[in-house]
Structure formats: structure tokens, C-alpha cells
Amino acid sequence: MDREINNKGQSWVQLPNGYLSRTPMFQFVILCLIFPLWGAAASLNDILITQFKTVFTLNDTATAFVQSAFYGGYFLMAIPASIIIKKTSYKLAILIGLLFYIIGCGMFFPASHVATYSMFLAAIFAIAIGLSFLETSCDTYATMFGPKETANKRLNVANVLIPLGDIMGIVLGKYLIFGEGGNIADKVAKMSKAEAEAYNQHLLQLTLRPYKYILIVLIIIFIVLAITKMPRAKALSTNADAQEAAEEQPSLGETFNYLFHNKRYMKGVLCQFIYAGMQTTVWSFTIRLALRLDSHISDAAASTFMIYSYIAWFFGKLVANWFLDRYSITKVLTWFSLLGTISLIITFTIPNITAVIAAIVTSFFFGPEWPTIYAHTLDQIHEKKYTETGGAFIVMSLIGGAIVPTIQGRVSDLSGSMQLSFIVPAICFALITLYFWTEHRWEKAHPDEVQEH
């Protein structure tokens, strides 16, 4: 019989494998409220890319460095975040993440005065450090926040809120950064050099506006979390006495050896890498695709397409959750990925605004991808003492969000066609379809080894 650890006054029972006997709802709601915070930061990047392209006179490849700084921070800090989780707690790692997020937002104020691309990239990198801590902590924490059999469902529920954060970010960007209307590039093209420099400085000041509101929300969440008792939700040694239970602390080398030799886990990490790159590049270039296909559209109007994309993403999550409750997750994800691939094929082949609509539809099929890949990959770790570092590796795979947009930007520059460059994410979605199809075949061949159903 499983040994249980229960502290006086708490409503949950800590199980030896790290999961909880039940989900403490108040604490889970607090945890879920953190998820949209990184969605807001990510969607603002799509606005900043359009803004910086004109202000700093950048080509498509150079603008992708916004995402490189963003996801590079994720990559570099995921393992340090996992180490902190292993040695302390999920709660402390989340508080550190929120603190770095606050610092990064604050850096936009001096960056707007220094007015250099590198300074803005530094601020974005600082935010990404915070988000790396948050995702490494929150994604894994959500899976452990109750019974094991509902881990995937909890993560999908928490992830439903991310599109709301994305919508919040893009709305703040649309009305606070693009609020003056018109097309920035067209305005600058008609100005003298001195006028253009003054206007560009004005545009950089506008970037401060959304981060002021985000800072207020971050500080409130930080304070509420700091004063709330949160579950430990970490695996306990199964061979120790119940009164002297100690957490197993495998070395980093032992953990790496276990994870790297876990082939199904590593395939999941690679899939997440591809997905992160695909999602980022589609959203990074959708606004610019609209501007290229319709020269009369304004930057603010083009940003509305991203609002539609995030709404589609939100409903995609809701619909996917309904299917995931009734069918195999690998089967559901195979179909979602296949239909998403078809949408992207339409995006790079139909030479009119239909391509933008297809890109928006693609976001619907993004709905279940990230949380399901994450939970499915984490489920391949049968020795739960490796869970924290395993989760960190999955978060590190977000570096795909730095690499794939750069590839698409390069394809766009070399071909001279923003639309044709969408062949890059189409290939990515096709590979993800192949991954889930092979996983579904494996599960049908090994039904007794499927843990998620």
C-alpha cells in the first residue's frame, strides 16, 4: 500500500510518487492564473517584431532575433530552474520566475530611452529567464497537482487560459502600441530623416504602455502566491520509513543518463522542439503575411488577425479537451496535426487573403498540442525522481521557437516571398503528425503499457 505524507491542516494528501490525493482548488486556481502571463509576453513579441522591423530597419531574418532572445532565455535557464526545484520547491522557483519577469518588464523603460535593438533584446531575454522558471515549474507542477490518472487533463485545463493571456497581450499591443492607426512603414517612408528619427523615438516610447499594466498584474500575483501555502508535490523515497521520508536526489549525470536513454521520452522532446518552433513562426509572421498580401491594410488592422488566431487557439483547446476525454490522446493529436498541416499547405499556396484565414485556422489545431506533448512526454519518465529535470528538458525544447522562425525568415529573404516561407511550419506540422501516428500505433501494439487511459 502506498505510503502517504499529510501535514496537519491541509486538504490534500502527499503520495510517495509526488502526486496528490486530490487537487486543492484554491491553490490550483492561483497556479492556473500564472499560465496566461507568459502568453501575454509571447504575443507582445509578435507586435514588437512588426514595430522593430521599421524602427531599426531590419530584414526578416534580423527580426527573428526577437524570438531568438526570447526562447534562448528559456533554453539556458530551464536546467538551473529544475535544480532549484529539486533542492527547494516549485513555489520558490515560480516566485523567482515572477521576479525576473518583473525585472524584464522594468527594463523596457531604460531601453526605450537608450533606443537600441540590443537593449530591447536584453529586456526580452530577462523576461524569458523568468518565463523559463515559470514554465519549468508550472507545467510539471500542474501535472502533479492531484491524482496521476488526471495529470494530462489538469495540464490541458491550465493551458486553456494561455490563449486569454495571448489575447490580452495582442489587444494591449494593438491599442497601446499600434493605437495611432495607419501603417508604420508607410508613414516613415514619407518623412525626412530627422522626422523619421523623432517618430521612431516616439514609437519606442509606445512600447512601454502594455508593460506597465503587466507589471501591476505580476506584482499582485507575486504577493498572493508568496502568502499562500502550496503543495510540495514531489516524489518521496519509497524505501524509507514514513516518519523519516527523504527525497531522493539523483545526480545530474545520473538523471541525464536515464533521460537520454529513454527513447520515447527523447522523441517527445524532439516533437516539442518542432512544435514550439512551428507555433512561434506561424504567429510571428501572420501579421506580416497579411501586410504583404494586402498593401492597404494598417498595422493595427493586421494585428486583429492575431486576436482571431488566439481565439481560434482557445476554442481549439476546448474542443480538443472534449475529444481527449473520450478518445486516445495520440489518436486525437494525429487528426489535429494532420488537419493543421493541411491548413498550412493552403497558407503557402493560395495567393490571396485566404492564406491568412488558413493561418488563423491553423491556430485552432494548435489547441491541444503543447500541453498534450508535454504531459505525454513526461509520462514516459517512469522513475519520478527524474521528473523535475525531465520537465526542464521539455521546456528547453522551446529553443525551437528561436531556430525555426530564423529559418522561415531566411527562406522569406532568399525567396522574396513571405507566403512561400510558410512551407517551413507546414513541414513541421507534418512531422508532428508522423510522431503522433507512430505513438498511436505503438500504444495499440502495447495496450497494457499505456498509462494515460
Automatic annotation (TrEMBL):
Membrane spanning residue stretches: 25-44, 64-85, 92-109, 115-134, 155-177, 211-228, 273-293, 305-324, 336-366, 386-407, 419-437
Q: Name one GO cellular component term.
A: plasma membrane
Topology versus the membrane, per the UniProt entry? Multi-pass membrane protein
Primary residence: membrane
Segments forming domain Major facilitator superfamily (MFS) profile: 27-444
CDD domains per the UniProt record, alphabetical? MFS_FucP_like
Coiled-coil features, chain-numbered ranges: none
Task: Give the location in the cell.
Answer: Cell inner membrane
**Pfam families hit by this protein:** MFS_1 (PF07690)
User: Is Cell membrane among this UniProt entry's keywords?
Assistant: yes
What are the GO MF terms of this UniProt record?
fucose:proton symporter activity
Concerning InterPro entries, the annotation shows:
Lfuc_symporter_FucP, MFS, MFS_dom, MFS_trans_sf, MFS_TsgA-like
Write out the entry's keywords from A to Z.
Cell membrane, Membrane, Transmembrane, Transmembrane helix, Transport
What is the protein's given name? Answer: L-fucose:H+ symporter permease
Taxonomic lineage per UniProt?
Answer: Bacteria, Bacillati, Bacillota, Bacilli, Lactobacillales
UniProt lists the gene as fucP
